[in-house]
Amino acid sequence: MGTTASQLGKDLLSEYQELTFLTKQEILLAHKRFSECLSKEDKNLPTPRVPMEKVLSLPELKSNPFRKRICHVFSTSDMKDGSLTFEDFLDLLSAFSDSATLEIKSHYAFRIFDFDDDGTLDSGDLEKLVNCLTGETDDTRLTPEEMRQLISNILEESDIDKDGTVNLSEFQHVISRSPDFVSSFKRLFCEVYK
Amino acid sequence: MESDSVFYTDRLGAPRNPLLDQLPSYQSLLYRRKPSASGSTKRRGSSRTRVGSSNSGKWGQTTVARQHEEKLRTQTIQRPVRELPKSMAEKRRDKDQRLEQAKDLSSWRQWRQSTRRTLRRLKEDGFEMLSNLELWRGDIHVIEGMFGTGILSYFSFLRFLVLLNIVMFLLMFGFVMLPIITAPHASGNTTFNHVDGSECRNYPSTSRHGLVVFHQHITDLLSGTGFLEQTYLFYGYYKVEAIHFPKFTYNLPLAYLLVTIAYLFLSLIWIVKRSATGFKRNLVQDEDRFQSFCNKIFAGWDFCIVNENAARLKRSSLLYELKTDLEEERIKQKIADRTRKEKCRIYVIRLILNLFVITVLAACFYSIYIATNFSQKAQMTKVNFILDLIYEYLPSIVITLANFITPLIFSLIIQYEDYSPAFEIRFTLMRCVFMRLTSICVLLVSLWGQITSCQEGDCVCGYNHVLYPEIYKLMIFDFISLFSLSLWTRKLIVNYCDCGLAKWWGQQEFAIPQNVLDIVYGQTICWIGTFYCPLLPAICTIKYFIIFYIKKVTLVNNCRPTTRPFRASSSNFFFLAVLLIGLALACVPVTISIAQISCSQACGPFVNYTTSWEVLPRAVSQLPAGVRTFLLAISSEAFAVSFFVITCLAMFYVIALAGAHKRVINQLREQLVMDGRDKRFLIQKLCQAQRTCAVRFPGSGSQSHSSDRVSPSYRSNSGVFLVHPPPDSATHV
């Protein structure tokens, strides 16, 4: 849970170490970072939540095209507003750390890319994904024919049971053969990992 | 029901077709992030059984679900808690649950689990400490954050080379220089290999006036001769025959030879090991893993990019890459559709252009040859300081100029050869690599030609004598040109000159392939030269250190990073492949000079032997009889042939195994497709049957209600409604 004091208790620290892939130092840095985002009243709550707008304005996430999805995926808020507690924040850092397993990373990557939250990546999700990667303005998008060609190529490579969508196991299978995934899906908050 | 929002599109939380939820494949994918306010794991189990119990009468799924739950629990218990993709609260609950269960275990198991945990934690702490000692860690983080992983691979390649050179230097130092240095202190008795201790070269004695001495020192420093020849830098300094320590005799020539072979082997093994990790997966499948679309899309974004500018650049480079790849597919289609007349025309053009390339290369090589000969002759007469320096450095200057101009020519003419874009890039790179590494060979061959053509008189004695200064000069000039072409001059020229050429040069991107070729060129020189100049790895290390900081500052201040994308994985492979080519090329002159060339008459550790290689047989003949027969057996032809045969057999076996695996994979794929179709078909039939049931018996329990709520927009694992919506499902019955 969150803490009112600026220091984390030793038990809590070792518990977090066991439940995430972060080291002691990284957890402490993350705590410091998180506390900076809290407003004064929030600091006294038992489980303070940082609202999504505040999270999106962090410098590391500001230029990331998937920032909104990241907030939604890691948030455990009942109201689905994308706000993060400290533990959500730790989960986020843990998934992006160097020592996280490929399975964890691919699972969360799948959730992040699944824009409509239905458990599979269909053409709509893939199209939104490509647009996020290339840019939001009109001159940075692919033409519709190119998009069609690209999506059919992706589905050809990854859709094993040929149902037109990529489900989690197909996604994990494709990721396990992708040489770039591990090096690109990491270090979201670089300074914490120093 | 707030949970399981990922799989449920209906916001009211009603389940979709309960059939799909009972599928074992769906059950196994149930890892969901739940808010911390929800209950314990029992809740999760109950949510599954709740779905199951709605059909308990008809389908008997409850037992199946519960069995599956048990299996899941035992499966997940094997993995540590943090590897489960759940929220922190759930992980905590899992951990407590496991601790509860662990209390039921015997004390032996408890102890084993706790020791395992502490060992793992110790290992992690150890790794963390080791990674803190990594060289340039902070700088590389900064670069990664600003430019992404493509350019990062260049800098980590540089770091790898620094480590390699440090290890090479330590090998040389430990086995060759350290015994010489410690001999007097360890009461060792050194025997030299000539009695009078004459010098390798006779220098005319100069009258010692201050400025002349200074000039002489600078000249010597820049040309590697003179006073530097009396230092550890030159292999002629190692005149020691053997060192007699109290307990044993240390055979220095043997050590020198073995260290040379050792560092070549070590480099080979290290490079192969480093490239194998990225390459392993590539061997399993036929398709080009590096260029696959999935790799580009799913692993396309570097999440470590922090800089707004870098993010924008990354986006545009991704867009460019995708457009290029899509266009390449279209071009491949176009190439396949070419008519015969067009093909002839293209082939004729390509032939002409290749001949042109060959003539350009031949012209470059010939000019290097001429320059080397001229330089050797000009070193006999001294005119004045500057001119002498230019004559000495003439081969290096010519090589650097050729390496600068030829890539421009190649990239110009490749446009007319009408290849696909990816192939264009690769082919140009291959030509540049060939040009660079062969120019060194040409230099060596022309020096060799010099030696054999003059055997007597006032020519300097020995191949090694001539080679060593040239290698040293190549290295120094390479460093100077890298330094000057990158940082200061660029900034100065761009700021103070206003002509178009300067502006174009100043805005140059950080071209990764050219930069890598520079480094590989320098490393090849180092490998060739270490036999003659044992301190060369140390000089190289210092050079790479300085280059790292220069490039970093250049990148951060001046250049834009390349807009042409360079993937981390394929670039790692490319760098190491080029490095391997350089190593293979470096082995050739070293092997020839060890095995064939007769040694300098007055210098070096191998004076008493006809060739350097002879040290080894002579040392082997002094070993005890058993070891000697063993070594002779290993080096005999019979052993070599049988070893070769066994290796071939092993290779054929592994190839056959890989082929069999590939066939099995294809069969399994087809089977998966078939099974998916079967599943969709069966579900369709079941849904139809459900609906006809509901139509006939409208009042029969919750069964019909749940089928009522079949929303037309739901997506299932099968996706049948996405692709071919059956007409019935659009209406709620």
Automatic annotation (TrEMBL), chain A:
One Pfam match: EF-hand_7
A molecular function (GO) term: calcium ion binding
Stored SMART domains: EFh
Keywords, in A-Z order: Calcium, Magnesium, Metal-binding, Repeat
Tagged with keyword Metal-binding: yes
CDD domains assigned to the protein according to its UniProt record, in alphabetical order: EFh
Protein's name according to its UniProt entry: EF-hand domain-containing protein
UniProtKB/TrEMBL annotation, chain B:
Tree of life domain: Eukaryota
Biased segments, Pro residues type: 724-733
Comp. bias intervals (Basic and acidic residues): 80-101
Polar residues bias spans: 700-719
GO molecular function, one term: mechanosensitive monoatomic ion channel activity
UniProt main location, coarse: membrane
Spans annotated as Disordered: 1-20, 30-101, 697-733
Coiled-coil intervals, chain numbering: none
Transmembrane segments: 160-181, 254-272, 347-370, 390-413, 433-451, 573-597, 638-660
InterPro entries according to UniProt: TMC (IPR038900), TMC_dom (IPR012496)
Membrane topology: Multi-pass membrane protein
Sequence ranges of Low complexity compositional bias: 48-57
Location in the cell: Membrane
One GO CC annotation: plasma membrane
Biased composition (Basic residues): 31-47
Ranges of residues in domain TMC: 469-569
Keywords in alphabetical order: Membrane, Transmembrane, Transmembrane helix
Sequence similarity: Belongs to the TMC family.
Designated name of the protein: Transmembrane channel-like protein
Organism encoding this protein: Coregonus suidteri
